[in-house]
Amino acid sequence: SENQIHARIEAQETPSNHSRMAKTNIVIVGAGVSGLTTGLLLAKNPKYSITVIAKHMPGDYDIEYCSPWAGANYTPFSTAGTREARWEKETWTPLADLAEKVPEAGIHFLKSREYVRDKDHNNTRTTNPWFKSFIPDFRVLDTSELPKGIDGGIEYTSICINPALYLPYLLGRCRASRIIVKRSIITHISQAYTLHHTTKPADIVINCTGLSSLTLGGVLDTTMAPIRGQTILVRNEDPMMIGTTGTDIPDELTYVMMRASGGGTILGGCAQKGNWEAEPDLEMAERIMGRVKELDPGFVGEGLDVVRHAVGLRPWREGGVRLEKERVGEGWCVHNYGHAGYGYQTSFACAGDVVKLVKEIVGERSMA
Ligand code: FAD
């Protein structure tokens, strides 16, 4: 039971068992891909005693919980030389390692094609992207390989994550790494300091609440907004991931990603900033399926076998992810939220940056 786990952890933490180390008590708020990956990397340091608390857990499907709704694949879309490009580069190897060596993580390799339409104004895609140096099997598509209406494209080997398997996998690894996971709702970030499983006050709180950082007391980050994404999960299987730079309808996209291990294929999509609508728009769903059929008629075949229509809200933040430390009363808070549409493909690097900030805080505390 959870109580037995608590007891075992407490026993591990008694001085006789653990070389009288002073522990740093950490509470992570959020059990999406950001919170769980951060937990996993922090737990490598045995001096940290970690609790994850969250309103939503892997297994839940809720409009306030973005991670289960993601495709999710690895398609770098940052600009060379930015911190986002570093995060994407640093996250490739851990995700590729999981795809290669850890079948239970629910990640597989797939060929991925990005199709470019010259008429998409905001299109920053190029046939010479910065990430081609480390992504396997990169090549520029020949015009003879392009579907109708597409002006150019690239192909490479990428990965696709099945969140229905990956999020429980991350949670399981957290539990195996001595992290205690509890369901809890806070209305102010300062409440998190009282929720460490030892009942002692937390020294550090990590804020991984995604879009809720807009309304969470003590954070109230008004630069946050949703970017609504709508998808269709179908049983049809397509061994090729596809994405386009745009469609003829503003804010609508076309992409196809087959999830690992019978997870079905996600058809997308849209990117509607400021739209909070949780219900799927079935007319848009028809348009998405029509576009996929045009682009990839072989995949659609006799028809699409729909499992469900879905909507997720990407946690967008003006200026990008907030990854910094902040003094909150007697304690410290490290923020790691605002990952918009790239939370999986930057997850390990952002979590790694949190580990560095926690180290800085612990260093400063021990000198004080
Ligand atoms: P969330 O998953 O939203 O988790 C927030 C956590 O905080 C939850 O556990 C919640 O319960 C908890 N919480 C919030 N407020 C409170 C509170 N007050 N008290 C207690 N707990 C609280 N990314 C990619 O990298 N690749 C993709 O291909 C991709 N495709 C996407 C497709 C769609 C349709 C969508 C919607 C998103 C996609 N994304 C993709 C983006 C990715 O899903 C997000 O960036 C990521 O899931 C954000 O994770 P998070 O952990 O920061 O937030």
Structure description:
The protein has seven helices and 15 strands. Helix 2 (33-42) packs parallel to helix 4 (163-176). Helices cover 26% and strands 27% of the residues. The strands form two sheets. Strands 3, 4, 5, 8, 9, 10, 11, 12 and 13 form a nine-stranded mixed beta sheet that branches. Strands 6-2-1-7-15-14 form a six-stranded mixed beta sheet, with helices on one face. Residues 15-19 have low confidence and may be disordered. The chain has helices spanning 2-13, 33-42, 83-101, 163-176, 282-295, 297-300, 347-367; strands spanning 24-29, 48-54, 107-116, 139-140, 152-161, 180-183, 204-207, 224-234, 240-244, 252-258, 265-270, 272-273, 306-317, 322-328, 331-337. Flavin-adenine dinucleotide is lined by residues 29-35, 54-56, 65-67, 69-73, 185-186, 208-210, 212, 216, 229, 231, 268-269, 312, 314-315, 337, 339-345. Flavin-adenine dinucleotide binds next to helix 2, strand 8, strand 11 and strand 13.
Write the SSE topology.
Blueprint: H1 2-13, E1 24-29, H2 33-42, E2 48-54, H3 83-101, E3 107-116, E4 139-140, E5 152-161, H4 163-176, E6 180-183, E7 204-207, E8 224-234, E9 240-244, E10 252-258, E11 265-270, E12 272-273, H5 282-295, H6 297-300, E13 306-317, E14 322-328, E15 331-337, H7 347-367
Parallel strand pairs: 1-2, 1-7, 2-6, 3-9, 7-15
Antiparallel strand pairs: 3-5, 4-5, 8-11, 8-12, 8-13, 9-10, 10-11, 14-15
Helix pairs in contact: 2-4, 2-7, 3-7
Bound molecules: flavin-adenine dinucleotide.
Flavin-adenine dinucleotide binds next to helix 2, strand 8, strand 11 and strand 13.
